[in-house]
Write a structure and sequence with these properties.
The chain is an alpha+beta fold and 710 residues long. Strand 2 (68-69) and strand 3 (75-87) form a beta hairpin. Helix 4 (130-137) crosses helix 5. The radius of gyration is 38 Å and the shape is elongated.
Length: 710
């Protein structure tokens, strides 16, 4: 009886416990319902607004760059439009969603997968086969968590087998390529998926299916197009591709200026130097996104503005003619004796009054083919020889000499050194004045002038005590002409020249007639321009004007700004001193008195319709080019550099010309390439001027009309 009673008591307790449990559950549900009701009534509208909340983000798109013209408005750099398919990733787009879009897009466009790397394919395979990729690693869940996400993914990448990678079809590779392009950009920044050879059919297909391709759009883009006939390609520079984006060395600067990381920017020379003018103002779009980051709509807020057009000082026709002159001269030169090392020549033509650069011409001749080396006109330096003697005579004036002063031309023989003499006087002794010294190119006259500046007295077979300050004195004057210092050209990468470091007396004498320090062809040009300008050293420049962009190929826009001459320094000597140097330069080109007393350039220039003035140069040097093994211990061959500086017309200079032919020949047979080039360049300039003047609607008249400047 007791057992039965106990069991009945336990049975009686069960319903009570259930009732209590049900009551507790009821209370909890009631609390939950009350809580939900409270939230719905009190905060319902707030939550609704949060769910429906949208954000507005400004998205920018690139506009065409400004175009580049020569001084006569001949287009050198244009923009070539092209159809483009773009993708803009939202801030919350998932990889799986991007992959789905890539799969759909791959059925509508053809892509070139040659640039698809093995790593791209591995990433795609892992995305498509997550379970197999996980299995490949052979790691437990615990091991996965311990090594971290980055190392775990690295393990997945390393575990993909060749067979698994080979299983990818061509269609898989197409999708992988598109997916990679999707990932190339930054959130809310358009990136080009395909920008080359996009057909009208592809544009139509994609446009019809934009609703099923979130983030994809069609647009017009542009690529830089360079005039195939211009020989200034290296000077014009280049623009980065979208893939390259901003250069690493300038990343922070460009980001601070509002660039996106994958923006295209000028990366060298004119394109880089005038990036701020050429870039334009980006188009701005307001993209509305929902709470999940999906783009709902895009509205254009600002259409953007194409970059300004840049007008260069370069005369493209004269540049082309000059290049051909150099090519013909080099081909001729290679037929003359001692020219195994001859491979290059440079010409710079400027307007000496304004500093405007008309040509920067350089050519290298290698294995029967020519390569443009325009950059070498201001980035390479050579010993220039007697062409710089005008600056030495001016140094004599600076330190006390008077125009017309004389020196004894005689061989300079110092104890323990080789004889130094003028080319026309190896053994005799006679007086020369400054004009005849320039006309005949006397080395002795320059050395004697330098000795006077140093306060040293020459004694045959004796020794010289030349203070180091004497080098500084000469170089100071040279620098005032632009020799051995930067010219101020508005392009990056200019060389300052080569300054000899030895301070021996013999080196000081060599310096005085151009046989020691090295200068660039552009520095030579600035030097002779300073003489033509009576001592005003003007910075050479390649930017002439900035104009508003237009959509018409045969018109240029209104003038924004124009570059004015920039005077770097004025040599503080009377104008009459410069007139004396000019007389000497005129004699060099026009005096035909006979024999060694004739001007060294008169054979080529005397009797011409235009009267030129200038100075020839020949420098004994050593080969410093690429065709010598400098590690062999064998000294490089002795060579001759030939040079020229001049201007014309003599009484009212329009152009200043410098010519440099490094390693022109070995031995004693001078091929006179410097003079052949100089003569042909002057002829080409004046012939071109005549041709233009003959036209009833002349080029210059049309180009500088009031209409174009309005």
């Amino acid at each position: 009886m007791k057992v039965k009673k106990s069991r009945s008591k336990r049975k009686a307790h069960i319903p009570i416990r259930l009732n209590i449990l049900f009551f507790i559950v009821f209370i909890l549900f009631a609390v939950l319902i009350l809580r939900l009701g409270f939230l719905q009534i009190v905060y319902g509208e707030d939550y609704k607004r949060e769910v429906e909340q949208t954000n507005s983000t400004t998205v920018t798109k690139n506009v065409p760059r400004g175009e580049i013209y020569d001084r006569n408005f001949k287009k050198l750099v244009a923009n070539k439009p092209e159809n483009t398919i773009t993708y803009t990733r939202s801030t919350s787009t998932k990889s799986a969603d991007m992959l789905k879009t890539a799969e759909k897009l791959s059925t509508m466009i053809k892509v070139d997968t040659k640039s698809l790397t093995e790593r791209d394919q591995i990433d795609y395979w892992i995305l498509k086969h997550p379970k197999e990729a996980k299995k490949n690693t052979k790691l437990t869940e615990k091991e996965q968590s311990e090594i971290g996400n980055d190392d775990y993914y690295k393990k997945q990448v390393e575990s993909v087998t060749k067979a698994q990678l080979d299983s990818l079809t061509q269609q898989d590779k197409n999708i992988a390529f598109i997916y990679r392009q999707f990932n190339a950009g930054y959130a809310l920044t358009p990136v080009n998926v395909k920008s080359k050879d996009v057909t009208d059919v592809e544009i139509a297909k994609v446009s019809e299916n934009l609703g099923d391709l979130p983030g994809v759009d069609t647009a017009k883009d542009w690529i830089r197009s360079y005039d195939s006939k211009t020989t200034l390609r290296s000077i014009l520079g280049s623009v980065t591709s979208e893939k390259q984006g901003l250069p690493d060395e300038s990343l922070q600067k460009y980001l601070a200026l509002g660039y996106a990381r994958n923006d295209r920017v000028g990366q060298s020379y004119v394109e880089q130097q005038y990036e701020s003018l050429l870039r334009g103002s980006k188009a701005e779009y307001s993209s509305e996104t929902d709470s999940d980051g999906n783009v709902i709509s895009t509205v254009q807020e600002y259409a953007g503005k194409k970059g300004s057009d840049v007008i260069l000082t370069i005369d493209a026709d004269l540049q082309s003619k000059t290049d051909e002159i150099i090519k013909e001269a080099l081909k001729y030169g290679k037929t003359t004796p001692g020219t195994r090392l001859l491979d290059r020549a440079y010409v710079v033509i400027t307007n000496p009054k304004t500093g405007e650069i008309l040509t920067l011409s350089g050519q290298q001749y290698k294995k029967g083919k020519f390569e443009d080396d325009s950059l070498g006109t201001f980035t390479s330096s050579y010993v220039m020889g007697s062409a710089i003697k005008g600056a030495t005579v001016m140094a004599g004036y600076t330190y006390g000499k008077q125009p017309g002063y004389s020196e004894i031309d005689e061989p300079i023989i110092l104890k323990g050194t080789q004889k130094k003499s003028s080319w026309f006087n190896r053994d005799n002794s006679f007086a020369m004045n400054d004009i005849s010294a320039l006309r005949q190119s006397s080395n002795s006259f320059m050395m004697k002038t330098a000795l006077d500046i140093a306060g040293a007295t020459y004694v045959k077979d004796g020794s010289l005590d030349i203070p180091n300050s004497a080098f500084d004195k000469l170089r100071k004057v040279y620098g005032e002409f632009g020799l051995g210092v930067k010219t101020g050209i508005d392009l990056p990468g200019e060389a300052t020249g080569i300054i000899g470091q030895e301070k021996e007396p013999g080196k000081y004498l060599d310096l005085s007639y151009g046989q020691y320090d090295g200068y660039t062809p552009l520095q030579l040009n600035q030097y002779v321009s300073t003489i033509a300008n009576n001592g005003y050293r003007i910075a050479p420049h390649i930017l002439k004007q900035v104009r508003d962009a237009t959509n018409e190929d045969d018109e240029v826009g209104a003038l924004q700004t124009q570059t004015n001459p920039r005077i770097l320094n004025k040599i503080d000597l009377p104008k009459s001193y410069f007139e004396q140097i000019k007389k000497g330069f005129y004699e060099v080109m026009n005096n035909t008195s006979g024999g060694t007393t004739s001007g060294t350039g008169s054979t080529y220039f005397a009797g011409l319709d235009y009267k030129a003035a200038g100075k020839t140069g020949t420098a004994e040097s050593f080969y410093a080019g690429p065709d010598w093994d400098y590690t062999s211990g064998i000294p490089a061959p002795a060579v001759w550099n030939t040079t020229f500086v001049g201007y014309a017309p003599y009484d009212d200079p329009e152009i200043a010309v410098s010519v440099a032919v490094p390693w022109a020949y070995e031995g004693d047979i001078d091929n006179k390439l410097n003079m052949r080039i100089a003569k042909d360049v002057f002829d080409a300039y004046f012939e071109l001027q005549k041709e233009r003047a003959k036209k009833a609607d002349g080029t210059d008249k049309a180009l500088y009309s009031d209409k174009k400047d309005k």
